[in-house]
């Protein structure tokens, strides 16, 4: 797992870490039981405060992505966690809200928005079928 931080993005560093780690877990790059770098090692590698990495790990744990075992480290939890599902639903809602905001600016009506969504769903199903076959 590689974490890349940007000081100019306007997003707090702990949030950037949290988002990149959770994305790696959701994508399967980090699987259940995978050990994460220690808070101190990650802080050293990223050249940031231990407090920043501690906060990122604490939020990942609170959202059900990881568990921290005192003296042992942080490990990825199974994806079937109810907290992870809630997090995924929140991401879907955020994405749909952003799409709705853009659609309103473009003066796209409900039918146009649904047509775009249907097209994206169809493309997703075709991609998934191609990956299976």
From TrEMBL:
<dbReference type="InterPro" id="IPR036390">
    <property type="entry name" value="WH_DNA-bd_sf"/>
</dbReference>
<dbReference type="Pfam" id="PF00392">
    <property type="entry name" value="GntR"/>
</dbReference>
<keyword id="KW-0805">Transcription regulation</keyword>
<protein>
    <submittedName>
        <fullName>GntR family transcriptional regulator</fullName>
    </submittedName>
</protein>
<dbReference type="InterPro" id="IPR036388">
    <property type="entry name" value="WH-like_DNA-bd_sf"/>
</dbReference>
<keyword id="KW-0238">DNA-binding</keyword>
<dbReference type="InterPro" id="IPR000524">
    <property type="entry name" value="Tscrpt_reg_HTH_GntR"/>
</dbReference>
<keyword id="KW-0804">Transcription</keyword>
<feature type="domain" description="HTH gntR-type">
    <location>
        <begin position="11"/>
        <end position="79"/>
    </location>
</feature>
């Amino acid at each position: 797992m590689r974490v890349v931080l940007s000081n100019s993005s306007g997003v707090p560093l702990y949030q950037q870490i949290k988002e990149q780690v959770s994305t790696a877990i959701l994508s399967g790059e980090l699987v259940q039981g995978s050990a994460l770098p220690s808070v101190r090692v990650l802080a050293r590698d990223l050249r940031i405060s231990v407090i920043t990495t501690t906060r990122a790990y604490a939020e990942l744990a609170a959202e059900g992505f990881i568990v921290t075992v005192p003296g042992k480290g942080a490990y990825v939890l199974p994806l079937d966690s109810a907290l992870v599902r809630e997090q995924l639903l929140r991401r879907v809602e955020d994405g749909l809200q952003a799409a709705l905001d853009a659609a309103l600016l473009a003066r796209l009506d409900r039918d146009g928005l649904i047509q775009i969504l249907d097209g994206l769903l169809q493309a997703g199903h075709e991609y998934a079928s191609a990956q299976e076959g």
